[in-house]
Amino acid sequence: MAKARPEVLWFGTPxxxxxxxxxxxxxxxxxxxxxxxxxxxxxxxxAVFQFGSDMPEDVVRAADAHVRTLIDSGLRVDLIAxxxxxxxxxxxxxxxxxxxxxxxxxxxxxxxxxxxxxxxHDAGQRPRADLKIEVAGDxxxxxxxxxxxxKRAFAHCSRIVLEELTGGLSQARVFxxxxxxxxxxxxxxxxxxxAKLDRRDKIDQEYRNYREYADKYIPFGLRPxxxxxxxxxxxxxxxxxxxxxxxxxxxxxxxxxxxxxVTSLIEETLxxxxxxxxxxxxxxxxxxxxxxxxxxxxxAS
Length: 301
What we know:
Elements: E1 7-12, H1 17-25, E2 29-33, E3 44-51, H2 57-72, E4 76-81, H3 84-93, H4 95-98, E5 103-107, H5 111-119, E6 132-135, H6 144-153, E7 159-165, E8 173-180, E9 193-199, H7 200-214, E10 230-231, E11 235-241, H8 249-254, H9 258-269, H10 271-275, H11 287-293
């Protein structure tokens, strides 16, 4: 069971009693912080930067320096100003973080509204700080900014080994993830997962495509089963079940064994999609062009 993350980190002008009461009523604990350096974010679900009319520069610098790291850890971030004039100064001084995904900018927000919005935010599992992450085969190591996403997604593990997979058309990194889970009563080595690491917007789009096109139209045993994605400020991680010892269609084609796999793909795996065609009038045109328009096929230049 995932441990709760009930803390809200508060920077800048201290919250008034009314705000504290609203957070307490929602089982949230406000933790006023003088600085963002060295703050433990593992138990926190959100961070609030409150700018009064004095707008101290150290709070602006803290927001500019730490907002992305806070979001990478799963926190929601709110930049709040007391009035429009102060908000204008905030926008001028902290403009580098205003458009970061996961940042909300608000003026004179009512205490109950702020508390309720934060209470509804799902920060996910607490990151496992001591998770051992290994990349097999001397492949490119993970960037430090990406490790926190794995520590959130695999917080139930004590160790993971990433076996990088190749052959995709995008610049994403895709791994088979071998896990060690010492707390499991069923065994320490569960079946592997796959993990896809890419830009946040691309992972978000892929997850939404999966939910819309695959989840309800492809039989359970014939599709990847995706867990909730993990998002950071700039990067995202998509994790799901991995079919161990599977073979690529290209490898089968090279051995002249692809016909049965292609037939199964069209007749069974994608049968739910094909059935939709009977609800529409026939359309004439190029299949190749339709596949290009749908970004299924890409012609070599």
